[in-house]
Amino acid sequence: MWPIAAAGVVLLLAGASAYAGFGKPIVVTMWPKPYLSFGLAWLGLAALLMALGTTLIDSGPEALGVVFSLLALVCFAITLLSFFWLPRRLLPGWYRAWVDGGRSTGQASRWPKFGRGGRS
Question: Where are the bilayer-spanning segments (predicted)?
Fold first, then answer.
């Protein structure tokens, strides 16, 4: 299970950095939808929960393992949803401000290439 957990950590870190605002130009201009970069966090969380759930089913309390596995399925469903759309509540504040401001993806080129800085 450790390869799945390791991949989950990598995906969770990549998605969390998108939620935190690192690489805003990449997220805003991502094709076809910017929601895909936010979906990485949900996919990473699903992988971690599934690894934990299967480990608990194999060696610990099975009921708790089933609960973690069901939570992993919910996270995976959110990942699939992120291919097309994400509810406003699941979007980070900087992205909501970007969309509410009516800014185009061309304006993202004025942001610094790396880091959290830049206009929101």
Answer: 36-57, 64-86
